[in-house]
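Chapter review: from sequence to fold.
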Amino acid sequence: MREIRKDPISDRWVAISTERGRRPSDFGITSVSSELGDPKLCPFCEGSEDKTPPEILAWRKQGTQTNRPGWDIRVVPNKFPAFVIEGDASRSGRGIYDMIKGVGAHEVIIESPKHDASIPDMDDEQVCKILWSYKHRIVDLEKDIRFRYVLVFKNHGKAAGSSLPHPHSQLIATPITPRYVKLELANSRAYFQEKERCIFCDIIQYELEVGERIVYENEHFVVMAPFASRFPFELWLLPRRHEFGFQVFPDSNRIMLARCLKNILKRIKVALNDPPYNYVLHTSPSSVPRPGKPDYWGTMQYDFHWHIEIIPRLIKTAGFEWGSGLYINPTAPEEAAKFLREVEI
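The C-alpha cell string follows.
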C-alpha cells in the first residue's frame, strides 16, 4: 500500500508506505525491561525521598510524614527544569523577533514506590492515583495566570527520552500554547463553526461504525489507530462522549480510564516486546481570560475534545521527515489495529 493521507484535525499529511516493513518483528525492538538498573541508586525509589526536591503532592498512607516513606504517588519539582517557576511571563521583542521569559512549571509524577512497576501491570487503583495526580496538578497550575498550557507526558525507555528507569511521567506548564495543540484547537473551532459538531466526536462515531481502526473500547473510552497515523502503532485514547478538558472529566469515570490505559499499554507491551514509547495528554488550555484577549479559545468547551496520544518509538524520524514535515509510516493503521486487537493479554 502506498497512500498519502490527511489528518483532518491537524491538516498534516502522512505517507503510508507498507512496502518498507510492517510487522512488529521487522523493527528489532530492544525491550525497556532490560534498562531497569540498580534500584539502590534510584532517587525515585521509596526510602530515597531526600534525593528529590520536596514533594508538591502525594498520595500517602495514613499517618505517614511528608517527604518520608509511606507513599503511593509523589509529585516533585524536576531537579533540572526546562522552565523556572519564579518570574513573570512578560513579552518583549527585538526587531522582528518575539520573546517571553522562560517561566513555567516542570514536575515529575513518580508513579509507584516500586522500581520495576509499570502501568500495564499495576492494579486499577494505582493507575487511578496516577490519573488523579494529573488532574489535580493541571487544575492547580491553571490558577496561575502566567501559564497558558499544561502538558502531561510520559517517556518510557531511553529511546523515548527517559533518563531514569523508575516509572514516572512529567508535567510542564508553559506561558504559551504549544504550536501543535494550537493547530488542533484552531482546526477544531473552524470545523465546529461550519458544522456545529465536534470534529473528534464525528471521528469517533465514524471509526466505531467502520471498526477497522478500533483497538479497544469500553463504556466511556475508545482507543483507535488514527487514519493518518504518523508512526507505526500510533494510538489515540479518547472519551466516547464529548469532554473538552481532562481537568473537568468526571472522577466517577476514572476507573474506566485506568482500565482502558492499562489495557492498551499491556497490548503494546506484549505485542511489541515492551518497546520505548511516549504518551502525551492533549487537553484544553487555561480558560483564564488574558488581558486584551477576553475570548481566547472561548469556544473550546464545544469544539475541543481531550485525548491521549500514544506513540511507540519503533522507527527514527529522519531527514525527509524533518525537511518536509511529511511523515512516512511503514505500518498501515488498519494493520496495526488488527494486530493489537488480536493480542492475548
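Two observations follow directly from the output. The first strand starts at residue 2 and ends at 6. The mean pLDDT is 93.
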